[in-house]
What we know:
There is one protein chain. By secondary structure, the protein is an alpha/beta fold. The protein contains 29 helices and 26 strands. The protein has a seven-stranded mixed sheet. Strands 15-14-16-17-18-25-26 form a seven-stranded mixed sheet, sandwiched between helices. A six-stranded parallel sheet has the order 8-7-6-9-10-11, sandwiched between helices. Helix 19 runs parallel beside helix 28 and helix 22 (528-538) runs parallel beside helix 24 (563-569).
Amino acid sequence: MIRIFSNGIRKIDNLTAFLAEEIDAYGSFDFSSGSSDSDHVRAVLGWGHKATAEKARRFASEKGLPYVAVEDGFLRSVALGCEGAQPLSLSVDPVGVYYDATAPSQLEEWLNNWESWMTPELEERARHAVRRLRLYDLSKYNNAPSFTTDDELRLRNAVGARPESRLILVVDQTAGDASLTLGGADDEALSRMLADAMKEPNAVVVVKTHPDVVAGKKQGALKHIPEGVHVLAESFAPLSFLKMFDAVYTATSQLGFEALMLGKTVHTYGAPFYAGWGLTVDHGKVPERRRARPPFEAVFAAAYMRLCRYVNPVTQTRMEIEEAIDLLAEQRRQNERNRKHYVAIGFRYWKKPHVRAFLSGTASRIDFVWDVEEGLRKAAACGAEAVLWSSKCTDEVLELARALNVVRLWRMEDGFIRSVGLGSDFNHPYSLVLDESGIYYDPKRESDLTKILRSVPSHPDRDRLIERSRALIELIREHNLTKYNMPSDPATEALCRSFPKEKRIILVPGQVDDDASVKRGGGRIQSNRELLEAVRARNPDGFIVFKPHPDVTSGNRIGRVPEDVLARCADRVLEEGSMIDILPHVNEVHTLTSLSGFEALIRGKRVMTYGKPFYAGWGLTVDEAGPEVKKGVGLTLEELVGGTLILYPSYWDWKTRVFCRPEDVCFRIVKGEQPEVGPWIRFCRIIRSIRRKFSKN
């Protein structure tokens, strides 16, 4: 058994996944606080060198048991742990603690023998991971905004930097921090650090103080900062912030290692884990144990890829750093987009939880207003950004928003991998899209999706994007995933197997006649009836299968085709079942603007479009109508899927209540997991069912 005294460790999600190796070696966890049954304890686990771990350390020492130290990893979360954010990574050390220079650690042992485990493949992975951390501006915590060129200009002006000036950053830490005490950085060393920085030729010194000091929660480690030295209290994402400095002076802060990621000169005045290996200018007493001279990639690999373990909070399984970067980058992207005040306009009560989730962030604020004009006026008056469901963004609404000088107007719409069950049945969405420019189904106005797709071939992380896209395509194909993921119907599958093999089987997916995608993207064709007639006229000898839209079949929306038209234009009408039952048995899909055309492309089917859907015009479909907005580039299927399913939508996991990725949503859907709805929504379902019953009678 593994004895754990800490209640804090007990509260960590997915602890068994993080510590799978220790469980295999020593057995399951024991959270009892006393010494009873100690004969069954084979190891002790504690939180680093915190005071709360001293009891655990004493117990391990008295019983002669191994002590395993856990700590937050170097890529932890968006929000802070004290705010309740669960860790994406933990460091696990059976030898010591990485920030304790007074004793050996696992990290030191690995780095002293780095040549025995460092391979060319691992070196390339480390180099690639660093490049992606810089690209996405990721650090241990990721709730601070990126440092922009405007921020840099303001700081340069504030400190009086001239073109020839060398900007020097001195990193303050909190007084009594364990990494200072155990890293050998006393008050004298900290004073010397600041004095040495000020002696740099043409130096303009900036002291970066800790946010906890600014908040009044803790005191700074630097006892005296001379007049004329600029103290920066604002928090920024470290990698973008550190770019502007020529050198960094630190005692033991992780900022020093992140500065090494950027190729900066780093002076250390304590003994952080990255000092003493020949990568830094060391002014403190570094342990003589650190004999080797590993390259930077080896230090990174040891710390971020071997010492740290990563667990996906949705799948609750271990993952490599590449996937952790994917997930953390997406969570940070959503958090940064939502760093604002929103006025959500015209949303019904049952949709408000969706809006709150998808607009959430560490610095977000949401006000709900029902009336459109009132909401736009409120947004304009307080400098907020307006959010409306896309169908409510009429030309009149857009004109009013412009007249009122609303800062920005966002259109919200369901995503492409939405739920297990229909949206019209009030099911919570796993994905939504927010589009500032237009909306994906409206070809008359260039949408954010069009811009994203046009830029995919030159995306700075294209290789990883294509790798994820290819895996996502296989996942969708393997598990027959669609937008609504309705249950399969054996009877429909049996009917599909009876289609004539000698004929060209053409699937025509029905849509909702008054759907905005039909109205805006259908062109001359504006109904299921007109589409069927057009397909039959083009394909007099084809075997045409018509699949009405589920919302039309269920009676939720309009779009039924007259029986005489069905008899004349369709060889088979399949009201039951879902697209996954039919697509394997057809040769082609002919559609107006239906998402089924995109789903057919994913499955390798020939697709002909009669309207102007978002996936037309990229060289992957046969298009009867030309695009109103020139696409400009051709795309591969992987590029189309990467832009459409990975870069454009937002994904929310209702169980862990965090932003996630399409891969994670697919995991939930494959397991058939759909969030439970509240009593209000259940009541709405009952009322609608009663109304349908009476309307039929």
